[in-house]
Request: fold
Amino acid sequence: MNKIKDFFNRTDRKSILLGLVLGSLIVWVPMMLFWHRDSHGQAFEKQATGQMYTCSMHPSVQQDHPGKCPICGMDLIPMTHHHDESHAMGSDEVMLSDEAAALANIETQVVGSGTAAKEIRLFGKVQADERLQQTQAAYVSGRIERLMINAVGDRVGSGQTLAVIYSPELYTAEQELVSALSFPVSEQRKALVEAAVEKLRLLNITSSQINEVIRNKKASPYVTLKANTSGTVVDKQIAQGDYVKQGQPLLKIANLSTVWVMFQAYEGDLPFIRVGETIHFTSEAMPGRTFTGKVSFIDPLLDPKSRTAGVRVVMSNPGGMFKPEMIVTGNATANMAQYGGKIVVPKSAVLWTGKRSVVYVKDDSGDMPMYELRQVTLGPTLPDGYVIADGLAEGEEIVTNGAFAIDASAQLAGKHSMMNQPGE
Reply:
């Protein structure tokens, strides 16, 4: 007893208090850790047994009630538990409860064959009919002494004088004819005259002008350029006083009683456009009016830059209502007989990755509906859907709305999806 009293007398009271506190912690901390682990284990077990929701774009976001993704704002989708279902389902199948399907707004449709009609949108402009255009060229070299055409757009008639050309070359040719007429030997004179007349004809000098030279026996350096067709001047490349060479184009005259409406069709649409196809088109210059024409010609060559080919429609142009360079917008409906009887599905049913196209096919044979990932081969694009060339059979039920939500659920479950296929 005396030894104990001596120990307490020698020991600092603060040291004794510190030892008592440390002993209490050694007993209390393990008890708290055990309780904390047990309570959280029960919470995790509760989450595992309840319905959890996640974001299809951010799988790390998970909560036990519907809502919006805090990262991207998308609607959260139900998470499905596949630990019991994986044995019955294949790697291409996904099972959703009725509640999950309702929240994902899943809609389906039984597919069937139908008449495929492709709507083709076309853009183009009005052009002059090239078959009715004439280029007025200079038949002799010289200077434009007088020009009767003021500007592009002037109307001219066939035989109308367009310009007067001063030509030393013509004067020399006519002087040869005058000399031939005065040749003393009659046999040689006839041959010389015929040669001089032919030379003038090659210069496009008219018979009346030649007869005038023969009658007056006087050469003239002036020649008149006359219109060889009626129409509208669409191109003017000269001015009064210009010097021109033989064969140089001076004016272009177009008869606009008939015009071409030239559309540009992309190469993907060309297989569905044929000669004789009807095209309906409009122009902003004539609002409220729709015109109809038939394809008369399809350009056999593609433009290497725009990847388009010209599609020509010939239109009558009473009163000149169609003017060259007028912009038009057209529509053609191609009846694709070669795709008759093929499956047609809505565009919303197809998930396209750039490498493949997939749809989800619904299977109601089990207690809960399953959705099978199916790769398909697409045919032509229609206004509201696709022609399915291969991969679906008539009578199968496919998902037309919510396919992306099903695919997101497949990705979260580690199954095959639009972005995850075998062998990749």
